[in-house]
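From the shared-data thread, chain only:
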Amino acid sequence: MRTTVGIIGAGPAGLLLARLLHNAGIDAVVLESRDRSYVERRQRAGILEQGTADVLRAAGAGERMDREGLRHDGIELRFDRRRHRVDFPALTGGRSVMVYAQTEVCKDLIALQLEEGGPLLFEAEALAVEDAGTDAPRVRFRREGREDVLECEYVVGCDGFWGVARKAIPAELTQVFERTYPFGWLGILADVPPSHDELVYARHDRGFALLSMRSPAVSRLYLQVPDGTDAGTWSDEEIWDELERRFETDDDWRLERGPITQKSVTPMRSYVHEPMRHGRLFLAGDAAHIVPPTGAKGLNLAVGDVVTFARALTHQQETGSPELLDAYSATCLRRVWQAERFSYDMTVLLHRAPAATAFEDRLQLARLERIALSRAAETDLAEAYTGFPFG
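Structure, as tokens:
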């Protein structure tokens, strides 16, 4: 099998890249180790930056998002029993975010790919990327019990942290930056309308809490818990009781309870792999970088990577110049590090470290007060949250 671009992974990054290349007249093959049902049920991110939503619309994948997604024009910061709303459009010249689950993005892109695009092979496990440093890289994969080879001009690894793409970059050429956090998020899905019409980020002495949503009828909520926590040790009643404590305010706001349909614990880490390119192998998304979810940047960073690659390859095809492809890693990493910085800042701003002192607690409150009282500080948060420019 032969193609111009071999894409490993049919998450939102790989699927969007296939769509962008299709629209540019560049052929691609997508290899996905899981079946279609798994990909369309895989719960991940739910916040789309302004730029991500715009890219999906331009790619022809935004119709259902605009019909069913929830546009949010701000977030609420909650601390010391007080509430402060950050107004995104007023601070950013009209920018906003969209609440639309990754599962729905994948469903939309899969439907488009199967109807209009090139091959999308489910249950095709990538085993290795070979000859990445040459002009003829290959992806060795297994499907239906047989091994095969996908011969490519370029390979893009959208196969996540545990995938094979990153392993094809020689260790002596790489540098890794990472940080692990001593806490995680206990997340729940609940069949109850959200108790607020925008996301609520709460800093509390007992730990962080986040009120989010997946639809007007389904709430998504999170609690900071110690690293290594087993979600099964928390009863539903204990979860709701703790959420109520951490979201408490001095006004009459109330948290609505409902049946919990899913609970899990997400570890928190920051990770960057440099470079994001070796020869004709390009890394995108979690294959190259991971952010703590506090800043809602993971999916959006992946979108930025594949937009950058698609633009660079289109430029090369149209002009013969490899300039933008050669700059791929540096271009992406500028945006990646800004997102890492913002995600780290939001994490340390809102989470209470296990050994936090009274001095550190007061510093957190002072930082939150600064955002609430300073338009400049508030604008910096709003600009970062709604998204850094692509490229």
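The mean pLDDT is 96.
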